[in-house]
Amino acid sequence: MDASAYYYIPAFVCWAGLGLKLPGLLRSWRDPLIRAVCWVIFLGGVGFFLAAPRTVAGLNDATGIANFSAALVYATVSAYSASCLVLIIHWRGGPEPYVRRLTRRWTAGYGVLIAVLITLFVLGDAPSERLTDFDTYYARTPWTGEMVVLYLLGHMTAAVASTVLCLRWAREVHGWLRAGLWLLVLAWLLNVSFSGLKLTAVIARWAGRDWDMLSTTLAPRLVGVAAAVAVAGFTLPLLGPWATAVRRAVTTWRRLGPLWRELSGIHPGSLLAAPIPWYASPFIHLTRREAGIEDGLRLIRPHLDYDVRSQAHTAAVAAGHSADSAARIGHAAMIAVAVQACRRAGPPTSAGFLDHAENSGGTEQVDNPANAELPVTRPSLIGIAHALRTSPIVAAARAAAAATPAADDERTPIR
Questions:
Q1: DSSP state for residue 216 in the 8-state scheme
Q2: Using an 8 Å Cβ cutoff, are 147 and 77 in contact?
Q3: Spelled out in words, what is the top-level CATH class assigned to the domain 5-243?
Q4: CA 211 to mean position of chain CA atoms
Q5: Is pLDDT at 353 greater than 50 in this prediction?
Q6: Fewer CB atoms < 10 Å away: N or C end of the chain?
Q7: DSSP type of residue 408
């Protein structure tokens, strides 16, 4: 693999994470926490992009200054370190004056560090372009060697401070936030290792040894992994709750399927809810399915029979079901039989359906015991859907209702 790929790939990972956060930034650009997250991810990607050997060579050629890119990379990475500390401070929160004061201190400290790094680069002498081993090649050069050590110490300080802050906070929280913080602890430990390896290689040069492989080969790969882990750590607490909500919506949508399909069979060829695009969000799909179930229950309401529910409930209790399970089976059997009765009665006219909806006012008809006790909460409907799919008692009631002659449906349900 080309050496530049070890830098470009982490840069792409960082900017892909930034793309996930841009919608939130556009919606809440005044939120300092969201701005800090975006700055961290953006600067992390910029740092990797600028450190790639191809970018280094291009920048040096464009400016005509040998190793100009080294000073630029050092300044960018230092700004990244400061932004990480600022993010964690805002993320953890606290009294606003305290957060503001601590943020200003870290920002000012790393601002001074960047100014000193640039000054040392100007004072130093680095005429030979180094694409990958600038740190070790100039380790013993006056001013430039001090710049290298100061940069590494600044990066290591931020890494250690961030590790300690995240570790302490991870012990106080739970859920997605805690998982994200543990990922950040791992990422910052990898960053500490990155600085440590480079510093070790520099010290080895001071002692006349050549351990450049630690700085030019191993350290970049470690920090590339650290970038991916850090992006995951920053985005997990923000995307995790959304992913959990999506999973719950999909699960609920799927569990309500048997009830929705049962009610959709009232009139063959017709759906209870208008079709929606496949790419619509799971929340829209769930809302439409629940709306369809509500419409279906409204259609079969005149055909609900309390005797069917009572008989199915008794049979379920006799079969050893718990009280809750027997109640769900009873309601499921009542709904299945009502669907068959509604199918034989034919589709209602638009006027008739509207009159019924207006008279019911969207509420249960309390003059019919079956209507009065029809559950409408989501957990109850999920339980009924499960009974419709699995209960042999419900299947038997449905089959018996399907075999009932049409003339038998002229009876009036219990009111």
A1: I
A2: no
A3: mainly alpha
A4: 42
A5: no
A6: N
A7: G
Tens of pLDDT along 363-408? 444 445 444 457 778 999 999 999 999 999 999 999 998 887 654 5
Helices H / strands E in the chain, number of each: 18, 0
Scan for tokens 């009542």, then name that residue: 334
CA dihedral 332, 333, 336, 340 (to 10 degrees): -160
Report the alpha-carbon angle 263-363-414, nearest 5: 70
Of residues 286, 295, 285, 311, the one with CA closest to residue 370? 311
Please state, in angstroms and rounded to a whole number, the distance separating the CA atoms of residues 266 and 296.
8
Per the CB < 8 A criterion, the answer to whether 78 and 117 are in contact is yes
Residue carrying structure tokens 């100007």 = 122
- d(CA 337, CA 394) in angstroms, rounded, equals 9
Q: Which two tokens stand for residue 113?
A: 């560090």
What are the backbone angles phi and psi of residue 276, rounded to the nearest 5°? -125, 155
Q: Give the per-residue pLDDT at 274.
A: 66
Contact (CB, 8 A) for 198 and 213: no
Q: Alpha helix locations (H) across 301-368?
A: 306-318, 323-345, 350-360
The answer to whether 37 and 19 are in contact (CB under 8 A) is: no
Residue ranges of the chain assigned to CATH 1.20.1070: 5-243
* pTM of the model as a whole: 0.70
For residues 158 and 84, the answer to whether their CB atoms sit within 8 Å is: yes
Nearest-angstrom CA–CA distance, 42 and 75: 14
